Amino acid sequence: MAKLLYVDIVSAIESEIVNGKLTEGSKLLSERELALQFHVSRNVVREAIKVLREKGFVDIQVGRGVFVKKPEPKLVSESLERVLDTSITGMEEILEVREVLELAIIKRVARQATEEDISELKNIFQEMESKKFHVNEFVELDAKFHLQLAKATKNNVFNILSTSFSELSNKSIQLTIYNPMSVNIAQEQHWQLIEAIEKRDEILGEKVMRSHIDDARKDIQILKKHMEEQQEDGRKNSINYDR
Questions:
Q1: Which end of the chain has fewer surrounding CB within 10 Å, N or C?
Q2: What is the CA radius of gyration of the chain?
Q3: What's the pLDDT at 235?
Q4: What is the third-level CATH fold of 74-235?
């Protein structure tokens, strides 16, 4: 029974941190106050706080209390990695969620991006232009571009989710077929996103982002076909060898 109680408390406090009700640096209620709020013993509260600390959500300061920490994107990413993988199915699932996230981000950024935000996006774009033929560096800069979009929302949850999915997406991108044509198309779309933001055009930004995600989806399908062909060739070679 106690286990179920502390899990409920952990879940409730986590939710308040993620949705912004409890912000970084906020002090949690005392053990006594939390025990009264959740109608549990102080031992149950202590167990919940211990779990929250282990998960990186709070910091216990002796003599001062328990304070909220900024959720670590790496922890979120590791949690996602436990349920997703870099198989084709995993890549498709990652992209599906990324689409929802990126569309929400671009609409918000088109409304409220500052000149400084736009300038930073242009700087990253220029860096990407110089690294078109350096796969790993280009992929890292691509992630940096999309993280800058998330940063421009001024929304901490978008930042956390984007950083988490960025780590997963990078692994997926490195597995897809990389060619100069796809890079040029991606760069054209990146510039169109910047233009949409400058024009404060949410509709254009959403349209370009959909095309960007659709192209990524096509790359995954090409990889899927390529892997299936390799498997079929391997099966045929195995049959011929057995003969």
A1: C
A2: 23
A3: 61
A4: Four Helix Bundle (Hemerythrin (Met), subunit A) (1.20.120)
